[in-house]
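Support case: user asked for a sample of complex input and structure output to validate their parser. Sending the pair below.
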Amino acid sequence: MSGRRRRAAEEPPRPDAPMLPKARFFEPVHVAVLAAVLGALRVLNLSLMGPRHGIGALERAARRAGRRLRAAAVFSRLMLLLPLPLSYAVVALALVKVLRLGATGERCLLLGGSVPLLVLLVLVGRVLFARRHPLHGSIVLDQFHGLHDRVTSALTFSRVPESERTALMQAAIEDGASLADQVDPSRAVPIPVPREALLVAVLSLGLVGLSLLEVRQYRQVPPPTTFEPMSMSADDIELFRDVAKELAAKNDDPNALVAVRRFNQLIEDIAQHRLDRHEVFQRMGELERDLKDNLELDRDARDEGLKGLARELEKSGLSKPAATAFDEKRLADAEKALRELAERLKKKESRPSAAELDKLRQALEKASRTTEERAKNIDERRRELAEEHKSLLKKKREQADAGTSDVDKKLADNERRLEHLDREKDRAARGHKQLSELDKQLAEAARDLMRDAGQSARDLEQGAQDINRMAKQETSEEQKKELLRKLQEMRELMRQQGKGGKDQLQRLQKFAERARGQSGAGQGKPSDGQGEGQQGGKKDGPLRLGSGPGSVSVEVPMPVTQSGSGVGQSGDKPGDGTEPGASPGYGTGHDPKLTGDATDLKGKTRDVTAAGADTGQGTASSQVIYGAAERGFVGRGYKQVFTDYETVAERALTQDQIPAGYRFYVRRYFQLIRPRD
Amino acid sequence: MTDADQAREQVVEFQKRIGALREEIGRVIVGNRDVIDGVLSCMLGSSHALLEGVPGLGKTMLVRTLAGVLGLEFSRIQFTPDLMPADIIGTVVLDEGATGARSLEFRRGPIFANIVLADEVNRATPKTQSALLEAMQEHRVTVGRTTHVIDEPYFVLATQNPLEMEGTYPLPEAQLDRFFFKLHVPFPSRDELHQIIDRTTTAEHAEVKRVLTREQILEMQALVRRVPVARHVQDYAIRVLQATHPNGEEAPDLVKRFVRTGASPRGAQAMLLGAKVRALFDGRFAASIEDVKATAESALRHRVLLSFEGEAEGVAPDRVIGEILKKLPASKE
C-alpha cells in the first residue's frame, strides 16, 4: 500500500465527506447468478471449457446427459404434482377473496397449504436425490445414438486400472473415445414439456388472475337511521307537567325531589322532541328502577321493626299509647305519644311511680334491643340450620347406595328454610339500619331513666324526632309511589299510542266515535262499542264501561246527585251500555221540594213523542264533555262533578277487582276530560 | 503395433472368417440367417445347440454343411427308441492282434467326433439321452475305469420335431440346460422356397469347401472368451435371468403368473457368451445390452419352465422372455 493510501485509510472520515458505498468484488447475489448461469449452461450442454474429444469429453457428455435426465425427471414430477398446491392456492385465494376470512381463517388456510407443498417437496426431492446408475447418462447416450454401449463400455473400461486392462478393453476405450464428438446429450436427453404443464400454466394464470381480481363485496348497508322523536299531545304534556309540579310542591325529600326533577326533565325532553321512543322508555325504566329500588323492602323491614318495638313497649302502661301507634304504623301519633311521655317525665308533679318507671325502663331497654336481638336470633337459627344441612349432606354421601329419599326431602326443606332465613336476615338488617337511631335513643332513655328522668325525657324527645324523620320519609315514599304510578300510566299511554305517537289522533278519533256510540270498523256488534250510559230512575245507577271488541262491560257504581230526575243520556243504540234503548229519555221520579203535585202519568193524556231524527251528525257526548273541560270553559260545577266522579272511579279502581287493562282506559278517560284551568 | 491394434486386427480377422463361413454355408442353406448365426454362436461359445423344427426344414443339412465348411470330423446319430448308450458312446470289444494275442479294446462310438448331430434326440430313451450328458458338459467319456477325452472343438447339435410327440421322450430339464441355445428353425418364406426348390431339384449339387481350420476355430473360440463385458451389460444379463424367476425382484406379472421355474445361471452364461460372439460378428470390442437382448430368447427359452397355468394358456416361453426384455430398464442402481 502506498503511503498516500495508507494515510487515507488511517485518517478518520471527515464529517462533511459524502458517504460512499463500500465496493465489494463479490456480492452474494452475483455469485448466485453466476452459479445459476453455469449450472444452466452445463445442463444445456453448453460447455465453456475442456476439449470436445477424447474419453474426458465422453465422460463430460455422459455426466451432462445424467444431469439432464435428473432435471427432466424432476421437471416431469414437478409438473405432475404442481397442480395440487396450485389448485389449493386457487381455492384458498378464492375463499379469502370471496368470503373475506379473518386472520385466523387465513392462517388456517396457510397451514393447510403447507400439506400439498410438503407433499410436492418430498416427492420432487425424492426424484432429485434418487440414486441412479453412475453411467445412466452414457447408457442413454448409447441408446439414443444406437452405439451398442460403446460409450458406456469405454467409460467402464477406462476406470479399470491400466495394468488390468486387456487389449480388447483398450480397443473398446479408444473406440468409445472416437465417438465423443458424435454424442449429443441435449438431443439424447430432451427435457420434454409434460402434458400436465398446460394444467400448471392454466392454474398459474388463474392464480395470478385471481390475485389481481378484486371481488366486490356487496355489503348490506343498513338504511340511515332516522330519528323519529316520540311525540305526545300538548294536552298530555301539560297533564304530566302538572303532575310533576304537584309532586314537587308536596315533597321536600331531596331524593324524591331528584326523582321528580328527572321526571320533569323527561317530560320536557318529550315536549321538545328530543327523544325517540326507545330513549323515552329507557329513561322511564331507569327512573322507575331507581324509585322502586328497596322501596318496598325498606318499608316492610321498618314496619316489622316497629311492630317489634310495639310488642315490647306495650308491656309498660306509660309507653302503651306509643306502642299502639307503632303497631298501627301511625308514626305521627307515635311521635306525639313519645313527646307526651317525655313531658310527663319532665314534670315532677306528674312523674310516674318508681314501679311504673322501672317497667318503662325494662320496656324501653327491651324495645331498644328488639331489632338487634331479632337479627341475632335469625343468625343463630341460620347457623343451626346450616350445620344440620351439612350433616345431612354428609349422611347422604355415606348412604349413597341406600335409599336417600328422606334425606333428600329434608335437604330440600332445609335449603328452603335457609333461603327464607336469608331473606329474613336481610330484612332484619334493613330494619336495624332504619331504626338504629331510635333504638339508640330508647336505650339511652332506659339508662337515664333511673338516674335522671329529665335526661331520659330528652332522650325520648330525640327518639320522637327520629320517628318524625321516619314519618317524613314515609310521606316521601308515598310521593315516590305516586310518581311511580304516574310513570306507569305514562308508559301505558306511550304503549297505547303506538310507535312515535302517529296514531294518536286516529285513536282519539276512534275514541270519539266510541264515545258517541258509533261502532268503529271491526268493532263487532254495535253494543260492543265503548260508551257510557246512565240509567235514569235508579239511585245507584251503575256506570257501564266497555272497551274494545267483545269486551266485558264493567260496572262502576256512581253516586247520583239528583234523585228521581236522572237524565238518561240518549245512549244511542249501538254501544250504549247494556240497556241503552230501555231508557225512556226522561226521569220518572218527583222532587218533593217542588211545589205542586207530581205529574199524573196515568191521566188522560195523549202520549206524544216528539224526537228529532238522530242523524248521528250532531255533537257527540264526548265532544260536549271536551268542550266543558277546555281551558276557559271550565265552570265550578264541572270541576265539582269531575272531582266527585274521578274520586269514585279511582276508589273503584283501587278497591274493586277491575282488570288492569281496563284501569288504563278509565284513568285515561278522566285524564282527557279533566278540567283545564 | 500396440496390443489394442492387434486386438483390432484379431476382431477384423474374426469378422472376415465369419463372413466367409456364412457365405459358404449360404451356398447350401437358403435363408435361416439367424439359425446359422445361432449355430455358429454355439460353436464359437464352445457349447451345443438344440434345433427345433418340423421335418424337412434343413436342420440336418445345416449341420452337415457346417461340418463340411469347418473341415471337422462329423458324425450323425439317428436317435431311435431302441438306441442304447453304448451305441453312441462306444463299447469295449475283444480284439485279437496280429500275434494272436487277445485284448479288450474300446471301440469309440459316434460321439467321438468334433461335430455330432443328434438327430431327433427326443426319440431315444432318457437313458440314452443322458449318455450325452458327460460328453456335452465335460467333453470326455468315461467307460469302465477309463476316461476318454474328446477332441476339441466339440460341438453337439441336436434336433427335435415339435409335432410328433407320440412315442417320444422329452428331454429332461438337466439335459436341456446343457444346450447353449435352443434354436427354432422357421418355415422358409416363398422366395426361400423357390431357391430351395431350384437347388434341390436340379442335377447340380452345391459342394462346400472347407473355410476354417481346426486351429482357427479354436483361436476364434479363445477370442470370444477374451471379449470384455462392461459391468452394466453383465448386470443387465443377470437382471434378465433373475426376472425369469417368479419371485424375482423385477419379474413382470406374466412371469409371476405363468412361470414355474426360471433359468439357471447357465442361462446368463449363454446370454453373455452369445453377446460376445455377436459383438465380434459386428466388429465390436465389447458386448452390449442389445447383444444380450438379441441372444436372450435363444439362451433362455428352453430354460424357462412354464407352470400348469402357463401350459394351459398356451403361453410360449418366447412371449415371457419378450415381456421381460420389454419391461426391464437398461440400468438400475
